[in-house]
Amino acid sequence: MTEAKTEAKQSVRITDTSLRDGSHAMSHQFAAEQVRDVARALDEAGVPVIECNHGDGLAGSSIQYGFSKVPEMDLISEAVEVCEQARIAALLLPGVGTVEQLKEAVERGIGVLRIATHCTEADISQEHFQMAKEMGLEAVGFLMMAHMRGPDALVEQAKLMESYGADCVYIVDSAGAMLPKDAKERVEAMKEGLECQVGFHAHDNLGVGVGNSLAAVEAGVDQLDGSLRGLGAGAGNAPTELLAAVLDKMGVETGLDVFKLMDAAEYTIAPIMPFEPMPDRDSIAIGYAGVYSTFLLHAKHAAQRYDIDVREIMMELGRREAVAGQEDWVIDVALDVAKEKGAV
Amino acid sequence: MSEDNKVKVAIVGSGNIGTDLMYKLLEEPGHMELEMVAGIEPESEGLKRARDEGIEATAEGIQPVLDDPEIKIVFEATSAKAHVENAPKYKEAGKIAVDLTPAAQGPYLVPTANLTEYLDENNVNLMTCGAQATVPMAYAVSRVTPVRYAEMVSTVASTSAGPGTRQNIDEFTFTTARGLEEIGGAQEGKAIIILNPADPPLIMRNTVYVIPEEDEVDEDEIADSVEEVVSEVQKAVPGYQLKNGPTFDERDTPWGKKPVIMMFLEVEGAGHFLPKYSGNLDIMTAAARRVGEGFARHLLGIEEVVA
């Protein structure tokens, strides 16, 4: 036979980020034992890549983002130790983390580095991609806050990452502000414009985290992110167990054990969650305003301290076009709003 | 003021930074006289502007600067790589180098905090724009109460971060963190930089967080010290503003529940050559002018406190 009669079954690689994006919802308080339990459960359910480090990437432990309870390098070691088949990934935001932490994370055993920049600033990631490739890692690019730019601009930025050595570039809906058509047109353009793989990372602030992921699958996405019970910033991510179930029903290959993931979500993650991320009032405001999902807990803290409405902070941050990592602006804006009201 | 009361200086590098510095030196020469601007592109905008201002402009690199024994101070506004090569030549020619690149061939200098300590050196480095903006705040706290940890977050308009910064963004975090420690007086420093592409471009913003050693601090004393340092910096950088703070909060830290002092700064440039939102570049050229003035006075034997 010279020609395949039937189309090959679509397959999607899932990366679970409960232990990285989930770090935001946990206020970076993951304990070593919790990380071992979650990593082991994910590994047994066949998840091929598990991301584990501070929510804001390597060296994210800070006043700006919140200090880690347990040093992230130790958590990486814990995860590496319990995994039989899964590879451990770490996130790095140039401007926060440096090649110094990258080297240590490699010593601790990561196999995948995900390098994140704001969706217009890909050219600050060159040295990190090159170092990751030199060290033999799989290197994945993350274009954050991708709702702020259209498909063409994103492809242009993704091409820079590809030229630095990216094996895959993600469209990252950090604000959970996209609708399914936004996800679809962006992934389609990326698939068309790039040689490397394309990924999609969802947040559920507008209640369409899974829907957007499915739109990305329709557009031919190669990789998707999920987290157990959606444990992640804002209203959380697309739940890994839900993606596994739905993709299986769609006939998309993931290699995941649906029941084991459902158990992991039910018995391993749910009992340790401080709250269940969901599109409640404040998270909807994030998606609606189009601001970074991790602002959620910082804005709640500031709103309470200065006795103002969280939504006022979010809308003003949206007007100021705050990007990923600008948690300091949350306090700054809260102080401005409070001043206006004569509260401070 | 007679010519005898001036020290001749040169700018090496005719790009954005060099050109902005040229206008600052022309507007407020103090005890300096700008003798030469050196570049490598005969048709560059910077050299053309220097000629228009009646300043000798050379496209032959640093040789004409080295050959002029009258030039005592050189402002290096090229690249770290170029400065590593040039630094020994300036030294041999008996010239003081004020380095605006991240080459770090001499001690780090932030005018408000430690200018007078290094007036006998022949090469000083201005670190990063973030350090120039935030080290004074850490210093303002640490001179009142011991500082365990200082952290800065710099948000800069995408268009005012040049290719040098972009290709080596790690350099910014390393160097700025060291500045918070060595000059800011923190036991441990940390730096974060964020590029924001908002249009119109945003004015440079900096947040400084400080964790003191002591659990009880005198808030009024800290606020007074901060206010004093801000007005000191404003003498050289009028657009340097404390927008909010110092405000006091409490956080869980690796050292237990600790007070955190927060300061929110905005740095608007003077708009000499660079756009006003590029406060990050302006604060470097303003610091360079101030350091040059410090050296000039020192060479002339004027010992009054540098303003």
Describe this structure in words.
The complex is a heterodimer of chains A (344) and B (307). With 344 residues, chain A is an alpha/beta fold. Chain A folds into 2 domains: 13-270, TIM Barrel (Alpha-Beta Barrel); 281-340, Helicase, Ruva Protein, domain 3, CATH 1.10.8. Chain A is 44% helix and 13% strand. Chain A has helices at 22-25, 32-44, 72-82, 99-108, 126-134, 151-164, 180-193, 209-218, 240-249, 258-269, 281-289, 295-306, 310-319, 327-340; strands at 13-19, 49-52, 87-92, 112-118, 138-144, 168-172, 197-201, 223-226. Chain A has an 8-stranded parallel beta barrel with strand order 1-2-3-4-5-6-7-8, surrounded by 6 helices. In chain A, helix 7 (180-193) packs parallel to helix 8. Chain A is globular and about 60 Å long. The model of chain A is unreliable at 1-5 (pLDDT under 50). With 307 residues, chain B is an alpha/beta fold. Chain B has 2 domains: 3-105, 3-Layer(aba) Sandwich (Rossmann fold), CATH 3.40.50.720; 129-277, Dihydrodipicolinate Reductase, domain 2, CATH 3.30.360. Chain B has helices at residues 16-27, 45-52, 63-67, 80-92, 111-114, 129-142, 163-167, 169-182, 219-236, 279-300, and strands spanning 7-12, 32-38, 56-58, 71-76, 96-99, 123-125, 147-157, 186-196, 204-212, 240-253, 256-267. Chain B is globular, with a radius of gyration of 19 Å. The two termini of chain B are 18 Å apart. Chains A and B meet through helix 14 of A and strand 7, helix 7, helix 8, strand 8 and strand 9 of B.
Summarize the structure.
With 344 residues, chain A is of the alpha/beta class. Chain A is built from 14 helices and eight strands. Chain A has two domains: 13-270, Alpha-Beta Barrel (TIM Barrel); 281-340, Helicase, Ruva Protein, domain 3.
